[in-house]
Design goal:
Elements (H helix, E strand, L loop, with lengths): L1 E6 L2 E6 L10 H8 L7 E5 L2 E5 L4 H11 L6 E6 L4 H13 L3 E9 L1 H6 L5 E2 L3 E4 L11 H26 L6 H10 L6 E4 H8 L2
Parallel strand pairs: 4-5, 5-6, 6-7, 6-8
Antiparallel strand pairs: 1-2, 3-4, 8-9
Amino acid sequence: MLSFKNVGLIMLATVSTVSMAGPATDVEINSVKNIPKLESGVTYKNGVVTWVGPFEYGELMTFEVLTEGKRVNKIRFDSNGGRATVGDKMAEFVKNNNVEVEILRFCDSACTTVAINSPKLSGPGILGFHLSYLPEPSGDMIGDIGYMLLSERIKDDNASYIKMWKDNPYLTDSDIELILSESNMDVTIDYSVEYLNSNLKK
């Protein structure tokens, strides 16, 4: 049975099963919802970055300014995601610098790209996975030309995501199949940090 939680404008789907066997349960999601949310923004202190809010270019610029010439040991996230290009850049940073990622509450969409590229994933949070999608064409010829061009980019991005998921130890083949079959622009499949870490031991 599917249940839904609202995060911003995105509906995130969860399956009511035991988390150690798959997607996060309603109990786990409600527990994370009860964790107090920190103030939005990107901050740096003693090697630890805290990123609360969207994956947008402004937040990325703040991160780069704050961490220039400094060591980053851990990044703490609470984010509904945002721009895939920001997620890709942060994922590369985390992977190349062996940075631990801690999920404070929720890490959805582009944020998951960063999280599963970390050699160490921690925290009580929930990660929400889905592919990239476009809204329906507008019917305007000029707009639809742009739509078709962007559609090709989305296809390429999704192919990259699928390859990354398959090459990643945090997600099983069954997890990937569920994401591909059940997720869409409005529905994200959620997994707990605990569950994803359990896959490393299999």
